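Annex B, item 7. Sequence and C-alpha coordinates for protein A, then protein B.
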Amino acid sequence: MNDPRHSVILPALCWSRRRRDFYAITTDVSADGIRLRSSALLAPGEDLTCSIRHIGLLKARIDWTSGQDFVVSIQAGRAALAELARQFVTLARAQDLRAEPLRIHRRIVPRQKIVTVTLADGRAQAGHVLNISASGVALLIDPAPEIGTTFRVGRTAARVIRHFTDGLGAAFAEPFEPSAVHEAMIL
Protein backbone atom coordinates (compact mmCIF):
# COMPACT_ATOMS: atom_id res chain seq x y z
CA MET A 1 0.00 0.00 0.00
CA ASN A 2 1.19 3.55 -0.74
CA ASP A 3 1.27 6.35 1.83
CA PRO A 4 -0.11 8.64 3.05
CA ARG A 5 -2.38 6.68 5.31
CA HIS A 6 -4.89 8.45 7.53
CA SER A 7 -5.66 6.60 10.76
CA VAL A 8 -9.38 6.59 11.48
CA ILE A 9 -11.31 4.23 13.75
CA LEU A 10 -14.96 3.72 12.81
CA PRO A 11 -17.24 0.74 13.46
CA ALA A 12 -18.67 -1.05 10.44
CA LEU A 13 -21.24 -3.75 9.73
CA CYS A 14 -20.51 -5.67 6.53
CA TRP A 15 -22.27 -8.43 4.59
CA SER A 16 -22.52 -10.08 1.16
CA ARG A 17 -24.88 -12.40 -0.70
CA ARG A 18 -22.85 -15.40 0.51
CA ARG A 19 -21.92 -14.13 3.95
CA ARG A 20 -23.97 -13.21 7.02
CA ASP A 21 -23.49 -9.85 8.74
CA PHE A 22 -20.14 -9.42 10.47
CA TYR A 23 -18.60 -6.58 12.41
CA ALA A 24 -15.42 -4.79 11.38
CA ILE A 25 -13.60 -1.62 12.32
CA THR A 26 -11.70 0.73 10.04
CA THR A 27 -8.05 1.28 10.89
CA ASP A 28 -6.90 3.65 8.14
CA VAL A 29 -7.59 4.95 4.64
CA SER A 30 -5.25 5.74 1.77
CA ALA A 31 -5.38 6.01 -2.01
CA ASP A 32 -5.20 2.19 -2.01
CA GLY A 33 -8.49 1.79 -0.14
CA ILE A 34 -9.99 1.40 3.30
CA ARG A 35 -8.20 -0.93 5.72
CA LEU A 36 -10.48 -2.72 8.16
CA ARG A 37 -10.05 -5.38 10.83
CA SER A 38 -12.50 -8.18 11.61
CA SER A 39 -12.57 -11.65 13.13
CA ALA A 40 -14.32 -12.91 9.96
CA LEU A 41 -12.18 -14.96 7.56
CA LEU A 42 -12.28 -13.13 4.24
CA ALA A 43 -10.82 -13.63 0.78
CA PRO A 44 -9.66 -11.21 -1.93
CA GLY A 45 -12.22 -10.68 -4.67
CA GLU A 46 -15.29 -10.86 -2.40
CA ASP A 47 -17.89 -8.15 -2.94
CA LEU A 48 -19.24 -6.60 0.27
CA THR A 49 -21.71 -4.03 1.40
CA CYS A 50 -20.41 -2.10 4.41
CA SER A 51 -22.29 0.31 6.62
CA ILE A 52 -19.61 2.50 8.23
CA ARG A 53 -20.59 4.87 11.04
CA HIS A 54 -20.49 8.54 9.96
CA ILE A 55 -19.86 7.48 6.35
CA GLY A 56 -22.89 5.43 5.27
CA LEU A 57 -23.52 2.44 3.04
CA LEU A 58 -20.70 1.49 0.63
CA LYS A 59 -20.34 -1.15 -2.09
CA ALA A 60 -16.81 -2.54 -1.82
CA ARG A 61 -14.52 -5.28 -3.10
CA ILE A 62 -11.84 -6.95 -0.96
CA ASP A 63 -8.47 -6.31 -2.60
CA TRP A 64 -6.16 -7.74 0.03
CA THR A 65 -6.28 -9.77 3.26
CA SER A 66 -3.73 -10.63 5.93
CA GLY A 67 -4.90 -12.30 9.13
CA GLN A 68 -7.67 -10.14 10.55
CA ASP A 69 -6.86 -7.14 8.33
CA PHE A 70 -8.36 -6.55 4.91
CA VAL A 71 -8.41 -3.69 2.41
CA VAL A 72 -11.42 -2.78 0.30
CA SER A 73 -11.76 -0.56 -2.73
CA ILE A 74 -15.02 1.30 -3.11
CA GLN A 75 -17.14 0.83 -6.19
CA ALA A 76 -18.25 4.37 -7.02
CA GLY A 77 -17.65 7.20 -9.48
CA ARG A 78 -14.80 9.68 -9.28
CA ALA A 79 -16.89 12.47 -7.65
CA ALA A 80 -18.30 10.09 -5.03
CA LEU A 81 -14.81 8.76 -4.26
CA ALA A 82 -13.46 12.30 -3.85
CA GLU A 83 -16.27 13.17 -1.41
CA LEU A 84 -15.71 9.91 0.47
CA ALA A 85 -11.97 10.63 0.76
CA ARG A 86 -12.77 14.12 2.10
CA GLN A 87 -15.12 12.64 4.73
CA PHE A 88 -12.55 10.08 5.89
CA VAL A 89 -9.73 12.63 6.11
CA THR A 90 -11.98 15.03 8.06
CA LEU A 91 -12.89 12.23 10.51
CA ALA A 92 -9.22 11.17 10.79
CA ARG A 93 -8.18 14.72 11.66
CA ALA A 94 -11.00 14.98 14.22
CA GLN A 95 -9.82 11.75 15.89
CA ASP A 96 -6.14 12.80 15.80
CA LEU A 97 -4.84 9.31 16.55
CA ARG A 98 -1.17 10.23 16.85
CA ALA A 99 0.56 8.15 19.45
CA GLU A 100 1.33 9.78 22.78
CA PRO A 101 5.05 10.24 23.32
CA LEU A 102 6.71 7.33 25.06
CA ARG A 103 7.33 8.10 28.73
CA ILE A 104 10.89 7.19 29.64
CA HIS A 105 11.22 8.66 33.12
CA ARG A 106 9.21 8.00 36.26
CA ARG A 107 6.78 10.79 37.18
CA ILE A 108 6.35 12.12 40.71
CA VAL A 109 4.03 14.67 42.31
CA PRO A 110 6.10 17.15 44.30
CA ARG A 111 5.08 18.53 47.69
CA GLN A 112 5.75 22.09 46.43
CA LYS A 113 3.14 22.39 43.67
CA ILE A 114 2.90 26.17 43.17
CA VAL A 115 5.73 27.61 41.04
CA THR A 116 6.53 30.86 39.29
CA VAL A 117 6.56 30.60 35.51
CA THR A 118 8.65 33.34 33.85
CA LEU A 119 8.44 33.95 30.11
CA ALA A 120 11.38 35.20 28.03
CA ASP A 121 9.96 38.77 28.06
CA GLY A 122 10.02 38.78 31.89
CA ARG A 123 6.30 38.34 32.49
CA ALA A 124 5.66 35.99 35.41
CA GLN A 125 2.62 34.06 36.53
CA ALA A 126 1.81 31.27 38.96
CA GLY A 127 1.60 27.70 37.74
CA HIS A 128 0.45 24.49 39.45
CA VAL A 129 2.76 21.47 38.98
CA LEU A 130 0.84 18.29 38.22
CA ASN A 131 3.92 16.09 37.96
CA ILE A 132 7.64 16.16 37.28
CA SER A 133 10.03 13.71 35.64
CA ALA A 134 13.74 13.93 34.92
CA SER A 135 12.93 15.24 31.44
CA GLY A 136 9.95 17.54 31.97
CA VAL A 137 6.98 18.91 33.85
CA ALA A 138 3.19 19.06 33.47
CA LEU A 139 1.70 22.38 34.60
CA LEU A 140 -1.74 23.87 35.00
CA ILE A 141 -1.40 27.43 33.75
CA ASP A 142 -3.78 29.85 32.10
CA PRO A 143 -3.13 31.11 29.55
CA ALA A 144 -0.64 28.48 28.41
CA PRO A 145 2.27 29.80 26.32
CA GLU A 146 2.38 28.61 22.70
CA ILE A 147 4.06 25.32 21.78
CA GLY A 148 7.79 25.94 21.28
CA THR A 149 7.93 28.83 23.78
CA THR A 150 10.91 28.76 26.13
CA PHE A 151 10.40 29.85 29.74
CA ARG A 152 11.53 29.21 33.31
CA VAL A 153 9.71 27.03 35.81
CA GLY A 154 11.12 28.37 39.05
CA ARG A 155 14.87 28.40 38.23
CA THR A 156 14.67 25.64 35.58
CA ALA A 157 14.64 26.39 31.83
CA ALA A 158 12.00 24.54 29.79
CA ARG A 159 10.20 24.55 26.43
CA VAL A 160 6.46 23.94 25.81
CA ILE A 161 5.99 20.70 23.85
CA ARG A 162 2.24 20.06 24.19
CA HIS A 163 -1.01 21.53 25.44
CA PHE A 164 -3.86 19.90 27.33
CA THR A 165 -6.97 21.30 29.00
CA ASP A 166 -5.88 24.29 31.14
CA GLY A 167 -2.21 23.42 30.96
CA LEU A 168 0.93 22.30 29.20
CA GLY A 169 3.69 19.73 29.07
CA ALA A 170 7.23 21.09 28.92
CA ALA A 171 10.65 19.53 28.37
CA PHE A 172 13.52 20.73 30.51
CA ALA A 173 16.42 22.35 28.60
CA GLU A 174 18.77 20.15 30.64
CA PRO A 175 17.18 16.99 32.06
CA PHE A 176 17.76 16.09 35.70
CA GLU A 177 19.45 12.89 36.79
CA PRO A 178 16.58 10.46 37.54
CA SER A 179 17.85 10.12 41.12
CA ALA A 180 17.39 13.91 41.60
CA VAL A 181 13.63 13.64 41.01
CA HIS A 182 11.80 13.24 44.33
CA GLU A 183 8.80 14.66 46.21
CA ALA A 184 10.89 17.28 48.03
CA MET A 185 12.50 18.73 44.89
CA ILE A 186 11.97 22.40 44.12
CA LEU A 187 12.25 23.67 40.59
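Protein B:
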Amino acid sequence: MEFWNLFMVALMPVLKVLLITALGTILAIQRFDILGDTARKNLNHMVFYVFGPAIVCSSLAKTITLNNVLILWFMPVNVLLTFLIGTALGWLLIKITRVPLHLHGLVLGCCAAGNLGNLPLIIVPAACKKTNNPFGDVDICRKNALAYASLSMALGSIYIWSYVYNIVRIYSRKVSSVDDDSKVKAVIATENDDTENPSKSQTDDHVMQLEIECIISHQQTKVSSSSTKQKIRNWLKILTEKINLKVQFAPSTIGTIIGLVIGIVPQFRKVLVDENAPLFVIQDSLVMLGDAAIPAMTLLVGANLVKGLKGVGKQIPLVIGIVLVKFIAMPAIGMGIVKGATHYGLIHPDPLYQFLLLLQYALPPAVAMSTMVQLFGGGEGECSVIMLATYTCAAVSLTLWCTFFVWIVLS
Protein backbone atom coordinates (compact mmCIF):
# COMPACT_ATOMS: atom_id res chain seq x y z
CA MET A 1 0.00 0.00 0.00
CA GLU A 2 2.85 2.38 0.84
CA PHE A 3 4.47 1.65 -2.53
CA TRP A 4 1.31 2.51 -4.43
CA ASN A 5 0.87 5.75 -2.47
CA LEU A 6 4.43 6.77 -3.34
CA PHE A 7 3.91 5.62 -6.93
CA MET A 8 0.89 7.90 -7.30
CA VAL A 9 2.81 10.83 -5.79
CA ALA A 10 5.57 10.29 -8.38
CA LEU A 11 3.20 9.52 -11.26
CA MET A 12 1.08 12.68 -11.15
CA PRO A 13 3.82 15.24 -11.98
CA VAL A 14 5.32 12.99 -14.66
CA LEU A 15 1.86 12.46 -16.13
CA LYS A 16 1.37 16.21 -16.36
CA VAL A 17 4.65 16.48 -18.25
CA LEU A 18 3.57 13.73 -20.63
CA LEU A 19 0.16 15.27 -21.34
CA ILE A 20 1.56 18.73 -22.14
CA THR A 21 4.46 17.18 -24.11
CA ALA A 22 1.98 15.13 -26.15
CA LEU A 23 -0.01 18.31 -26.83
CA GLY A 24 3.17 20.01 -28.05
CA THR A 25 3.85 17.11 -30.42
CA ILE A 26 0.29 17.20 -31.79
CA LEU A 27 0.45 20.96 -32.34
CA ALA A 28 3.73 20.54 -34.25
CA ILE A 29 2.66 17.84 -36.72
CA GLN A 30 2.06 18.96 -40.28
CA ARG A 31 -1.71 18.50 -40.12
CA PHE A 32 -2.09 21.25 -37.49
CA ASP A 33 1.24 23.11 -37.90
CA ILE A 34 0.50 25.45 -34.97
CA LEU A 35 3.98 24.89 -33.57
CA GLY A 36 5.78 24.77 -36.91
CA ASP A 37 9.42 25.71 -37.43
CA THR A 38 8.84 29.46 -37.23
CA ALA A 39 6.50 29.24 -34.24
CA ARG A 40 8.90 26.93 -32.38
CA LYS A 41 11.79 29.29 -33.06
CA ASN A 42 9.84 32.31 -31.78
CA LEU A 43 8.54 30.48 -28.70
CA ASN A 44 12.02 29.17 -27.98
CA HIS A 45 13.34 32.74 -28.07
CA MET A 46 10.62 33.86 -25.64
CA VAL A 47 11.49 31.05 -23.23
CA PHE A 48 15.23 31.62 -23.57
CA TYR A 49 15.23 35.41 -23.27
CA VAL A 50 12.11 36.17 -21.17
CA PHE A 51 10.24 33.35 -19.41
CA GLY A 52 13.27 31.32 -18.26
CA PRO A 53 15.25 34.22 -16.75
CA ALA A 54 12.04 35.56 -15.14
CA ILE A 55 11.22 32.36 -13.26
CA VAL A 56 14.85 31.83 -12.22
CA CYS A 57 15.30 35.41 -11.00
CA SER A 58 11.96 35.67 -9.17
CA SER A 59 12.25 32.25 -7.49
CA LEU A 60 15.81 32.76 -6.29
CA ALA A 61 15.16 36.34 -5.13
CA LYS A 62 12.16 35.19 -3.10
CA THR A 63 13.61 32.12 -1.42
CA ILE A 64 17.42 32.21 -1.44
CA THR A 65 19.25 33.97 1.37
CA LEU A 66 22.91 33.95 2.36
CA ASN A 67 22.15 31.18 4.84
CA ASN A 68 20.44 29.10 2.12
CA VAL A 69 23.42 29.52 -0.22
CA LEU A 70 25.68 28.02 2.43
CA ILE A 71 23.21 25.19 3.04
CA LEU A 72 22.83 24.36 -0.67
CA TRP A 73 26.56 24.33 -1.45
CA PHE A 74 26.47 20.65 -2.46
CA MET A 75 24.15 21.20 -5.44
CA PRO A 76 26.81 22.75 -7.75
CA VAL A 77 29.09 19.83 -6.87
CA ASN A 78 26.31 17.33 -7.53
CA VAL A 79 25.46 18.84 -10.92
CA LEU A 80 29.14 18.84 -11.90
CA LEU A 81 29.36 15.15 -10.92
CA THR A 82 26.39 14.31 -13.18
CA PHE A 83 28.24 15.91 -16.11
CA LEU A 84 31.59 14.23 -15.39
CA ILE A 85 30.09 10.77 -14.77
CA GLY A 86 27.89 11.10 -17.86
CA THR A 87 30.91 12.04 -19.97
CA ALA A 88 32.87 9.00 -18.72
CA LEU A 89 29.95 6.65 -19.44
CA GLY A 90 29.46 8.28 -22.85
CA TRP A 91 33.12 7.70 -23.69
CA LEU A 92 32.73 4.01 -22.79
CA LEU A 93 29.60 3.83 -24.96
CA ILE A 94 31.54 5.31 -27.91
CA LYS A 95 34.28 2.71 -27.50
CA ILE A 96 31.88 -0.21 -27.12
CA THR A 97 29.48 0.66 -29.96
CA ARG A 98 32.13 2.24 -32.25
CA VAL A 99 30.14 5.41 -32.82
CA PRO A 100 31.18 7.35 -35.98
CA LEU A 101 33.46 10.32 -35.37
CA HIS A 102 30.88 12.92 -36.40
CA LEU A 103 28.56 11.70 -33.60
CA HIS A 104 31.13 11.66 -30.77
CA GLY A 105 30.25 15.16 -29.54
CA LEU A 106 26.51 14.40 -29.71
CA VAL A 107 26.83 11.16 -27.70
CA LEU A 108 29.09 12.70 -25.05
CA GLY A 109 26.78 15.71 -24.73
CA CYS A 110 23.60 13.63 -24.45
CA CYS A 111 25.16 11.41 -21.79
CA ALA A 112 26.61 14.33 -19.81
CA ALA A 113 23.86 16.96 -19.91
CA GLY A 114 20.51 16.14 -18.32
CA ASN A 115 17.38 18.27 -18.55
CA LEU A 116 18.13 20.10 -15.29
CA GLY A 117 15.77 22.98 -16.07
CA ASN A 118 12.42 22.05 -17.58
CA LEU A 119 11.67 18.77 -15.83
CA PRO A 120 12.72 19.66 -12.24
CA LEU A 121 10.75 22.92 -12.54
CA ILE A 122 7.67 20.86 -13.38
CA ILE A 123 8.12 17.67 -11.35
CA VAL A 124 9.45 18.94 -8.02
CA PRO A 125 6.88 21.74 -7.36
CA ALA A 126 4.08 19.47 -8.65
CA ALA A 127 5.02 16.85 -6.04
CA CYS A 128 4.11 19.41 -3.35
CA LYS A 129 0.63 20.36 -4.57
CA LYS A 130 -1.36 17.66 -2.76
CA THR A 131 -2.19 18.21 0.91
CA ASN A 132 -1.04 14.66 1.71
CA ASN A 133 2.31 15.04 -0.07
CA PRO A 134 5.28 13.45 1.74
CA PHE A 135 7.28 16.71 1.91
CA GLY A 136 5.16 18.67 4.40
CA ASP A 137 3.17 21.91 4.18
CA VAL A 138 2.03 22.66 0.62
CA ASP A 139 3.00 26.35 0.52
CA ILE A 140 6.42 25.91 2.14
CA CYS A 141 7.12 22.83 0.03
CA ARG A 142 6.25 24.57 -3.24
CA LYS A 143 8.26 27.67 -2.29
CA ASN A 144 11.35 25.56 -1.53
CA ALA A 145 10.75 23.39 -4.58
CA LEU A 146 10.78 26.39 -6.92
CA ALA A 147 13.98 27.66 -5.32
CA TYR A 148 15.75 24.29 -5.57
CA ALA A 149 14.55 23.69 -9.14
CA SER A 150 15.48 27.24 -10.24
CA LEU A 151 18.98 26.84 -8.85
CA SER A 152 19.21 23.48 -10.64
CA MET A 153 18.13 25.12 -13.89
CA ALA A 154 20.68 27.92 -13.51
CA LEU A 155 23.55 25.53 -12.72
CA GLY A 156 22.55 23.27 -15.59
CA SER A 157 22.58 26.22 -18.00
CA ILE A 158 26.05 27.30 -16.85
CA TYR A 159 27.56 23.82 -17.15
CA ILE A 160 25.84 23.05 -20.46
CA TRP A 161 27.02 26.23 -22.19
CA SER A 162 30.55 26.05 -20.80
CA TYR A 163 31.36 22.33 -20.54
CA VAL A 164 29.15 20.52 -23.07
CA TYR A 165 29.22 23.38 -25.60
CA ASN A 166 33.01 23.11 -25.83
CA ILE A 167 32.90 19.29 -26.13
CA VAL A 168 30.54 19.52 -29.11
CA ARG A 169 32.61 22.36 -30.61
CA ILE A 170 35.92 20.47 -30.30
CA TYR A 171 34.56 17.30 -31.90
CA SER A 172 32.91 19.27 -34.70
CA ARG A 173 36.35 20.78 -35.49
CA LYS A 174 37.90 17.32 -35.52
CA VAL A 175 35.30 16.25 -38.07
CA SER A 176 36.02 19.39 -40.16
CA SER A 177 39.74 18.66 -40.06
CA VAL A 178 39.18 15.09 -41.24
CA ASP A 179 36.91 16.36 -44.02
CA ASP A 180 39.59 18.84 -45.15
CA ASP A 181 42.19 16.07 -45.27
CA SER A 182 39.81 13.93 -47.30
CA LYS A 183 39.26 16.79 -49.72
CA VAL A 184 43.00 17.23 -50.21
CA LYS A 185 43.49 13.51 -50.87
CA ALA A 186 40.53 13.44 -53.25
CA VAL A 187 41.79 16.45 -55.21
CA ILE A 188 45.33 15.06 -55.44
CA ALA A 189 43.98 11.68 -56.54
CA THR A 190 41.89 13.40 -59.21
CA GLU A 191 44.94 15.32 -60.42
CA ASN A 192 46.90 12.07 -60.74
CA ASP A 193 44.06 10.57 -62.78
CA ASP A 194 44.07 13.59 -65.06
CA THR A 195 47.81 13.21 -65.56
CA GLU A 196 47.28 9.67 -66.75
CA ASN A 197 44.37 10.79 -68.93
CA PRO A 198 45.63 13.68 -71.15
CA SER A 199 42.22 14.02 -72.80
CA LYS A 200 41.07 16.17 -69.86
CA SER A 201 40.71 19.84 -70.66
CA GLN A 202 43.41 22.28 -69.61
CA THR A 203 40.80 24.40 -67.82
CA ASP A 204 39.97 21.51 -65.45
CA ASP A 205 43.69 21.13 -64.67
CA HIS A 206 43.92 24.77 -63.66
CA VAL A 207 40.79 24.51 -61.49
CA MET A 208 42.12 21.40 -59.71
CA GLN A 209 45.50 23.01 -59.14
CA LEU A 210 43.85 26.10 -57.70
CA GLU A 211 41.75 23.99 -55.30
CA ILE A 212 44.85 22.12 -54.12
CA GLU A 213 46.73 25.36 -53.49
CA CYS A 214 43.80 26.91 -51.60
CA ILE A 215 43.17 23.91 -49.33
CA ILE A 216 46.85 23.18 -48.58
CA SER A 217 47.64 26.85 -47.98
CA HIS A 218 44.66 27.08 -45.61
CA GLN A 219 46.05 24.23 -43.53
CA GLN A 220 49.62 25.49 -43.64
CA THR A 221 48.71 28.96 -42.38
CA LYS A 222 47.78 27.41 -39.03
CA VAL A 223 51.40 26.44 -38.37
CA SER A 224 53.39 28.79 -40.57
CA SER A 225 53.25 31.95 -38.41
CA SER A 226 56.72 32.45 -37.06
CA SER A 227 56.70 35.91 -35.57
CA THR A 228 56.03 36.31 -31.85
CA LYS A 229 53.40 38.94 -32.55
CA GLN A 230 51.47 36.61 -34.81
CA LYS A 231 51.70 33.80 -32.26
CA ILE A 232 50.28 36.04 -29.55
CA ARG A 233 47.46 37.05 -31.88
CA ASN A 234 46.66 33.43 -32.67
CA TRP A 235 46.72 32.54 -28.97
CA LEU A 236 44.33 35.38 -28.09
CA LYS A 237 42.04 34.39 -30.95
CA ILE A 238 41.90 30.79 -29.73
CA LEU A 239 41.27 31.97 -26.16
CA THR A 240 38.39 34.21 -27.17
CA GLU A 241 36.87 31.40 -29.23
CA LYS A 242 37.08 28.99 -26.31
CA ILE A 243 35.69 31.47 -23.79
CA ASN A 244 32.60 32.74 -25.56
CA LEU A 245 31.30 35.31 -23.06
CA LYS A 246 28.04 35.70 -24.94
CA VAL A 247 27.39 31.97 -24.53
CA GLN A 248 28.62 31.77 -20.93
CA PHE A 249 26.39 34.64 -19.81
CA ALA A 250 23.15 33.29 -21.21
CA PRO A 251 19.93 35.08 -20.09
CA SER A 252 19.18 32.42 -17.47
CA THR A 253 22.70 32.86 -16.06
CA ILE A 254 22.19 36.61 -15.82
CA GLY A 255 18.80 35.99 -14.19
CA THR A 256 20.50 33.70 -11.67
CA ILE A 257 23.10 36.30 -10.76
CA ILE A 258 20.47 39.04 -10.33
CA GLY A 259 18.19 36.76 -8.32
CA LEU A 260 21.00 35.65 -6.00
CA VAL A 261 22.14 39.23 -5.43
CA ILE A 262 18.59 40.37 -4.59
CA GLY A 263 18.05 37.38 -2.31
CA ILE A 264 21.37 37.59 -0.48
CA VAL A 265 21.49 41.38 0.07
CA PRO A 266 18.87 42.30 2.73
CA GLN A 267 18.50 45.88 1.43
CA PHE A 268 17.45 44.65 -2.00
CA ARG A 269 14.98 42.20 -0.47
CA LYS A 270 13.32 45.01 1.51
CA VAL A 271 12.96 47.14 -1.60
CA LEU A 272 11.92 44.45 -4.13
CA VAL A 273 10.82 41.17 -2.56
CA ASP A 274 8.97 41.76 0.72
CA GLU A 275 5.20 42.16 0.32
CA ASN A 276 5.28 45.73 1.64
CA ALA A 277 8.31 46.60 -0.50
CA PRO A 278 7.94 49.86 -2.51
CA LEU A 279 9.01 48.11 -5.73
CA PHE A 280 7.23 44.80 -5.09
CA VAL A 281 5.36 45.23 -8.39
CA ILE A 282 8.62 44.36 -10.23
CA GLN A 283 8.93 41.06 -8.39
CA ASP A 284 5.23 40.34 -8.92
CA SER A 285 5.58 41.00 -12.66
CA LEU A 286 8.57 38.63 -12.86
CA VAL A 287 6.54 35.94 -11.11
CA MET A 288 3.74 36.40 -13.64
CA LEU A 289 6.17 36.08 -16.56
CA GLY A 290 7.86 33.09 -14.93
CA ASP A 291 4.53 31.27 -14.64
CA ALA A 292 4.50 31.05 -18.45
CA ALA A 293 7.90 29.32 -18.54
CA ILE A 294 6.85 25.83 -17.47
CA PRO A 295 4.01 25.23 -19.98
CA ALA A 296 5.98 26.89 -22.79
CA MET A 297 9.08 24.76 -22.09
CA THR A 298 7.04 21.57 -21.98
CA LEU A 299 5.21 22.34 -25.23
CA LEU A 300 8.57 22.96 -26.91
CA VAL A 301 9.92 19.61 -25.71
CA GLY A 302 6.97 17.87 -27.34
CA ALA A 303 7.16 19.94 -30.52
CA ASN A 304 10.88 19.25 -30.96
CA LEU A 305 10.26 15.49 -30.78
CA VAL A 306 8.42 15.53 -34.11
CA LYS A 307 11.70 15.54 -36.01
CA GLY A 308 12.64 12.23 -34.41
CA LEU A 309 9.61 10.38 -35.71
CA LYS A 310 11.53 9.58 -38.91
CA GLY A 311 14.41 7.15 -38.99
CA VAL A 312 14.14 5.69 -35.48
CA GLY A 313 15.07 2.21 -36.64
CA LYS A 314 18.46 3.30 -38.02
CA GLN A 315 19.87 4.32 -34.63
CA ILE A 316 18.64 1.51 -32.34
CA PRO A 317 22.05 0.42 -30.89
CA LEU A 318 23.06 4.01 -30.15
CA VAL A 319 19.68 4.84 -28.61
CA ILE A 320 19.71 1.72 -26.42
CA GLY A 321 23.19 2.62 -25.17
CA ILE A 322 22.19 6.18 -24.23
CA VAL A 323 18.99 4.93 -22.55
CA LEU A 324 21.03 2.49 -20.44
CA VAL A 325 23.46 5.25 -19.47
CA LYS A 326 20.82 7.88 -18.62
CA PHE A 327 18.15 5.74 -16.97
CA ILE A 328 20.01 2.84 -15.34
CA ALA A 329 23.71 3.53 -14.80
CA MET A 330 23.47 7.23 -13.87
CA PRO A 331 20.63 6.92 -11.29
CA ALA A 332 22.32 3.91 -9.67
CA ILE A 333 25.62 5.82 -9.32
CA GLY A 334 23.76 8.93 -8.16
CA MET A 335 22.07 7.03 -5.34
CA GLY A 336 25.45 5.95 -4.02
CA ILE A 337 26.82 9.51 -4.17
CA VAL A 338 23.82 11.25 -2.56
CA LYS A 339 23.30 8.62 0.14
CA GLY A 340 27.02 8.66 0.92
CA ALA A 341 27.06 12.46 1.18
CA THR A 342 23.95 12.33 3.41
CA HIS A 343 25.56 9.72 5.64
CA TYR A 344 28.59 11.96 6.21
CA GLY A 345 26.47 15.04 6.86
CA LEU A 346 27.44 16.93 3.68
CA ILE A 347 23.85 17.46 2.51
CA HIS A 348 21.05 19.57 3.98
CA PRO A 349 18.63 17.06 5.61
CA ASP A 350 15.53 18.41 3.81
CA PRO A 351 13.96 15.35 2.03
CA LEU A 352 12.78 17.56 -0.85
CA TYR A 353 16.34 18.78 -1.42
CA GLN A 354 17.70 15.23 -1.37
CA PHE A 355 14.93 14.16 -3.76
CA LEU A 356 16.03 16.83 -6.28
CA LEU A 357 19.70 15.82 -5.98
CA LEU A 358 18.75 12.22 -6.79
CA LEU A 359 16.44 13.32 -9.61
CA GLN A 360 19.32 15.17 -11.31
CA TYR A 361 20.92 11.79 -12.13
CA ALA A 362 17.77 10.30 -13.73
CA LEU A 363 16.84 12.97 -16.28
CA PRO A 364 16.80 12.61 -20.10
CA PRO A 365 19.24 14.63 -22.25
CA ALA A 366 19.05 18.42 -22.20
CA VAL A 367 16.94 20.02 -24.92
CA ALA A 368 19.86 22.42 -25.54
CA MET A 369 21.66 19.56 -27.32
CA SER A 370 19.39 20.10 -30.32
CA THR A 371 20.44 23.75 -30.46
CA MET A 372 24.15 22.91 -30.26
CA VAL A 373 23.95 20.25 -32.97
CA GLN A 374 22.17 22.70 -35.27
CA LEU A 375 24.76 25.35 -34.46
CA PHE A 376 27.77 23.23 -35.41
CA GLY A 377 26.07 21.07 -38.04
CA GLY A 378 25.99 17.29 -38.38
CA GLY A 379 23.94 14.80 -36.41
CA GLU A 380 20.62 16.72 -36.41
CA GLY A 381 18.65 13.65 -37.45
CA GLU A 382 20.37 11.39 -34.90
CA CYS A 383 19.80 14.01 -32.18
CA SER A 384 16.07 14.11 -32.93
CA VAL A 385 15.85 10.32 -32.76
CA ILE A 386 17.75 10.26 -29.44
CA MET A 387 15.46 12.93 -27.98
CA LEU A 388 12.31 11.12 -29.09
CA ALA A 389 13.46 7.76 -27.71
CA THR A 390 14.84 9.04 -24.39
CA TYR A 391 11.85 11.24 -23.59
CA THR A 392 9.49 8.38 -24.43
CA CYS A 393 11.41 6.06 -22.11
CA ALA A 394 11.50 8.79 -19.45
CA ALA A 395 7.73 8.43 -19.08
CA VAL A 396 8.28 5.06 -17.41
CA SER A 397 11.75 5.46 -15.93
CA LEU A 398 11.11 8.83 -14.25
CA THR A 399 7.94 7.54 -12.59
CA LEU A 400 9.70 4.46 -11.21
CA TRP A 401 12.83 6.33 -10.12
CA CYS A 402 10.81 9.14 -8.52
CA THR A 403 8.85 6.55 -6.56
CA PHE A 404 12.06 4.91 -5.40
CA PHE A 405 13.73 8.25 -4.61
CA VAL A 406 10.79 9.39 -2.45
CA TRP A 407 10.94 6.10 -0.56
CA ILE A 408 14.70 6.48 -0.03
CA VAL A 409 14.62 10.06 1.30
CA LEU A 410 11.71 9.32 3.64
CA SER A 411 13.05 6.00 4.97
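Comment on protein B: The two ends are 15 Å apart (CA to CA).
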